[in-house]
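2024-03-11 09:14:02 DEBUG pipeline.ingest accepted 1 chain
2024-03-11 09:14:02 DEBUG pipeline.ingest length=350
2024-03-11 09:14:03 DEBUG pipeline.predict start
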Amino acid sequence: MGMVMEPISHVFMAFMDIFLDALPFMILGVLLSTIVENFIPEGVIQRMTPKHPLGGVLFACVLGIMFPLCECGMIPFVRRLMRKGMPVYIAVIFILVGPILNPIVFASTWMAFRDNPAMAYSRMGLTFGVALVIGFLLTRFLKSNPLRHPIEPAAASLPRHNHTHGSQHIDQHDHHHGHAHDHKHDHSHAHDHSHNHKHDDHGHDHHGHNHAHGDSRLMTMVSHGSSELFEMSKYLMLGALLTALIQTFVAQDSLSAIGQGAFISHVFMMGFAYLLSLCSTTDAFVAVSFAKSFSPGSLLAFLVFGPMIDVKSTLMMLSIFKARFVLTLSIVVAITVLTGSLLFMHFFLA
């Protein structure tokens, strides 16, 4: 019985270590994502979007720093930006690098790799390098529209809405004006009393409307934050559990044999990151648990490739882009990250 309980205890302890270390950063990421979702107007971003391709790539990286969204909330946010007129290549770069190039991810990586802070800088540097390469390839070779369905500009429906609203306003104004004129002609005293009474009621209703609007905004924030926290926590718990199981039941000699390979270790950790689909605010705590068995370069490949391309982000991208484009983009990102991680391993993480 004791021999059975010992591995279970080891799995539980490893799981709790990873989960509890990552939990504060996950909550902070959800909180900031909720603020961005509800308080940042997209029109501000559109007025800042540069026209030059290089400026567009740099702008996408800056957006990642300004708006610390995880990949769970990235796709809906980018869809709205494209409706406002954001170029497709900037949107794609933002989807790829946004979940990594932000202060929360840098802080979580720094905390996880306290003994090797170069990993945090290398993660940001490689991500920026991937952004430049993918941005260059998109602006140079992307000729056809990669969107699955055309995205109509958000302003397309405004004239019809304003026209309807305006006609209703005019009709209501004419009706009330005519009624008030007849009423005043017969009973001016009654009209004054009625007018004052209605004015008070109008003020009361306006206060109630503001109060209801505030409650609605608060409920929207709570709903968005709780749903995203639930979604992210599922992947974090699954990733922590799988990592704990691997560390407990896979022989350390086998892990070391894979982890120290110059090429196979990078491929293995990239595939592992794709399947785990961890949030970028917490994946560093999973990666550092393999630090004794895997090379720093392979851990860097895990930290960069996973937030860019994983199972859930692939499914979400397929809802916007054509399957051929998503497949081609995934292959190019994988080759770029693999090459970059090998170079970083040779020059910076040796």
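2024-03-11 09:14:41 DEBUG pipeline.report The radius of gyration is 27 Å.
2024-03-11 09:14:41 DEBUG pipeline.predict end
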